């Protein structure tokens, strides 16, 4: 398996195929997006310089979206620090919403200037982004001209791509033709759902776009596609392993012989060689891989673990494992026990019990616990049952809300509270100015500081209602309001030393024996990941302290995904009554009910999703042959 994350290693060149018969596109898997983004920037820089030496223009096809942002950051750095010049560069962007004004902060024109063009020495006349303001009568000819302009400068030397969950490249949505050129297109519903947070609601997302065609892209001499995060995993599997078909337009790239996909581990997680490596190659079997394989086999054969036979193993690529383990009987029992030992009703450890086969320590019977919650509701949505138990079992539980969550409160909700306040205090000028602002606010306006404050306060009071319901004292509830989040827009700042200091402070003050945090990297707008990174950085700083030796970190997942059964290291079962208590706690977060902005592709309400997910985890355990619980919350330990 080719996984690389070292700076010095560059990836193998396109055309050298993977060692799996399943894959049809050259791809390289990296630990995260940082390293490959730098490698792509280097490849682009090399190309620019090579063309410059030949006195030729370098023609780049560029993408927008979250995937290429770090590539542009690195190119800007190279320009500023290493003198990389863009004077000979001509760019063509893949797409633009239609209709769309250039000055609109949602426009791809704005995005490209913000992330790249404003910071390098590219000549303005060499920048081409499809125009979202062409009249509909002129649109057809405009698209033909865009296509001709690319050809006139010698065609694309390099094309950078992201991939949408529909399998689109550019905005070539399902149904796009192999030979399509630049044209206008109707956006797929899923694409509009994914864009909704940036537009503060799906109703504001344009229905149409202009995009280069599949044919335009395939004519590029070199293509690199970037894919980051678990949200892209299943479409990348279809693209890399499926048959070429217009329903997944990115599969057309299988026909291009100089294409490389650079993807991170989360995005690669559905590829056969990653998900079920025993079907592809001889594996080195450690305990984690054994459990993964046994759980997979049990699900595949619809048999509980203890019923798996030698034949099941031999028929499904695991004969090597059986040779190592002896018989299916021995292996089954070993793996069954491993799973069995993850289950505990005592997430803080069971005092005075033998803990050799329990996930948590019995020692330190009353633990100090910090539950970090990225937004002011992830605590109850993702681990409400465990939270409730920890308090009930007498541990000193603290909740730390990492961000204010203000962006997710609608203007209507804020207006409601402002008007109530105004009725109580008719003379309050501040309230009046908030009301005035909200009444004339347009979709392009960023909330004033006061409006953001009000929205944050609404979320605070909802959180306090929920934590009080679980019996927590108010002084154990901490609102960190990490500054990286406070931009007033969807795009957040990178974490800074100030964020990390705040995280360090709270850990250092409480000196916890347990930390719970959201290990959910699939958050559609990235806040969970930044919150997790801020914790990891804080842990690095604090590690040398003596008290940290007693501190264990448990990761739950946010509202979007759950740990796979084989990844779970602590499974906390819930009774039907506890499920109801959790539901009740989620209900306090009233501003997050009914079609809120950040639901991703899933329009179920948070409490429904949480219950379905916890019920499903319990069912999976039961199907594997373990006890039948109403619901289970799942955690994985993070070793630092
Ligand atoms: C953007 C574009 C799209 C995106 C794709 C992935 O110019 O052409 O195809 O590359 O929607 O978007 P992100 O990178 O935001 O996941």
Largest sheet: 8 strands, parallel
**Mean pLDDT across residues:** 93
The percent of residues in helical segments reads 25-40%
For the secondary structure, the number of strands is 18
Strand order of the largest sheet: 1-2-11-10-7-3-4-6
Calculate Rg over CA atoms: 26 Å
Can you tell me the overall shape?
globular
Ligands in the model, by name, code or SMILES, are: fructose -6-phosphate
Strand content: 5-15%
Model regions low in confidence, pLDDT < 50 over at least 5 residues: 1-9
For the termini, the CA-CA separation is: 26 Å
Per-chain topology:
Blueprint: E1 3-4, E2 27-30, H1 34-53, E3 58-62, H2 69-82, E4 89-93, E5 95-98, H3 108-115, E6 127-128, H4 136-152, E7 158-161, E8 183-186, H5 189-195, E9 208-211, H6 214-218, E10 223-227, H7 233-241, E11 259-264, H8 272-275, H9 287-301, H10 310-315, H11 319-325, H12 328-340, E12 368-373, H13 378-392, E13 396-401, H14 411-424, H15 429-440, H16 449-469, E14 477-479, H17 497-510, E15 514-518, H18 527-542, E16 552-556, E17 570-574, H19 576-587, H20 606-623, E18 631-638
Helix pairs in contact: 1-2, 13-19, 14-15, 14-16, 16-19, 17-18, 19-20
The structure holds fructose -6-phosphate (F6R).
Residues 63-67, 94-95, 108, 162-164, 168-171 line the site of fructose -6-phosphate.
Describe it.
There is one protein chain. The chain is of the alpha/beta class. It has 20 helices and 18 strands. It has helices at residues 34-53, 69-82, 108-115, 136-152, 189-195, 214-218, 233-241, 272-275, 287-301, 310-315, 319-325, 328-340, 378-392, 411-424, 429-440, 449-469, 497-510, 527-542, 576-587, 606-623; strands spanning 3-4, 27-30, 58-62, 89-93, 95-98, 127-128, 158-161, 183-186, 208-211, 223-227, 259-264, 368-373, 396-401, 477-479, 514-518, 552-556, 570-574, 631-638. Helix 2 links the parallel strand 3 (58-62) and strand 4. Helix 19 (576-587) packs antiparallel against helix 20 (606-623). The chain is globular and about 80 Å long. Bound molecules: fructose -6-phosphate.
């Amino acid at each position: 398996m080719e996984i690389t994350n070292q700076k010095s290693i560059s990836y193998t060149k396109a055309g050298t195929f993977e060692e799996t018969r399943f894959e049809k596109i050259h791809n390289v898997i990296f630990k995260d997006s940082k390293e490959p983004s730098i490698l792509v920037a280097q490849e682009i820089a090399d190309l620019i310089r090579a063309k410059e030496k030949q006195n030729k223009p370098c023609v780049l096809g560029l993408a927008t979206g979250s995937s290429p942002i770090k590539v542009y950051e690195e190119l800007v750095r190279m320009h500023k620090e290493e003198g990389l010049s863009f004077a000979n560069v001509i760019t063509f962007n893949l797409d633009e919403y239609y209709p769309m004004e250039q000055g609109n902060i949602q426009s791809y024109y704005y995005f490209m200037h913000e992330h790249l063009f404003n910071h390098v020495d590219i000549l303005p006349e060499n920048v081409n982004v499809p125009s979202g303001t062409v009249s509909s009568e002129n649109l057809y000819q405009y698209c033909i001209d865009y296509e001709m302009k690319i050809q006139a400068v010698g065609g694309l030397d390099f094309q950078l791509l992201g991939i949408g969950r529909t399998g689109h490249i550019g905005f070539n949505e399902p149904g796009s033709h192999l030979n399509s050129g630049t044209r206008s297109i109707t956006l797929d519903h899923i694409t509009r759902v994914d864009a909704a947070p940036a537009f503060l609601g799906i109703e504001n997302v344009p229905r149409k776009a202009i995009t280069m065609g599949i044919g335009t892209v395939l004519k590029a001499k070199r293509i690199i596609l970037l894919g980051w995060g678990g949200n892209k995993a299943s479409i990348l599997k279809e693209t890399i392993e499926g048959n070429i078909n217009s329903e997944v337009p990115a599969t057309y790239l299988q026909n291009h012989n100089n294409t490389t996909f650079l993807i991170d581990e989360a995005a690669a997680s559905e590829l056969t060689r990653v998900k079920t490596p025993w079907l592809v190659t001889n594996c080195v079997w450690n305990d984690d891989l054994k459990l993964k394989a046994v759980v997979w086999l049990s699900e595949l054969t619809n048999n509980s673990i203890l019923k798996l036979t030698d034949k099941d193993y031999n028929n499904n690529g695991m004969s090597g494992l059986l040779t190592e383990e002896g018989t299916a009987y021995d292996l089954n029992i070993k793996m069954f026990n491993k799973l069995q030992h993850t289950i505990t009703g005592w997430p803080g450890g069971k005092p005075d019990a033998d803990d050799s086969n329990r996930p948590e320590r019995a020692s330190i019977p009353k633990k100090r616990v910090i539950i970090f919650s990225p937004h002011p509701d992830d605590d109850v949505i993702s681990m409400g049952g465990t939270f409730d138990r920890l308090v009930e079992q007498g541990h000193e539980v603290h909740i730390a809300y990492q961000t204010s969550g203000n962006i997710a409160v609608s203007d209507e909700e804020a207006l409601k509270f402002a008007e109530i306040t105004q009725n109580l205090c008719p003379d309050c000028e501040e309230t009046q100015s908030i009301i005035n602002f909200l009444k004339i606010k347009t979709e392009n306006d960023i909330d004033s500081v006061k409006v953001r404050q009000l929205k944050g306060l609404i979320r605070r009071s909802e959180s306090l209602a929920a934590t009080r319901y679980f019996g927590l004292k108010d002084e154990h509830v901490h609102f960190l309001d990490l500054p990286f989040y406070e931009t007033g827009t969807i795009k957040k700042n990178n974490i800074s030393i100030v964020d990390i200091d705040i995280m360090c402070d709270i850990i250092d003050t409480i000196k916890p024996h347990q930390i719970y945090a959201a290990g959910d990297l699939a958050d559609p707008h990235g806040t969970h990941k930044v919150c997790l990174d801020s914790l990891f950085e804080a842990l690095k700083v604090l590690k040398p302290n003596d008290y940290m030796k007693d501190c264990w970190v448990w990761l739950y997942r946010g509202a979007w995904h759950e740990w796979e059964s084989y990844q779970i290291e602590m499974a906390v079962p819930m009774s039907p009554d506890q499920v109801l208590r959790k539901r009740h706690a989620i209900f306090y977060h009233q501003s997050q009910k009914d079609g809120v902005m950040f639901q991703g592709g899933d329009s179920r309400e948070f409490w429904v999703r949480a219950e379905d997910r916890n019920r499903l985890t319990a069912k999976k355990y039961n199907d594997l042959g373990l006890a039948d619980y109403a619901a289970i919350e799942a955690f994985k330990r993070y070793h630092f």
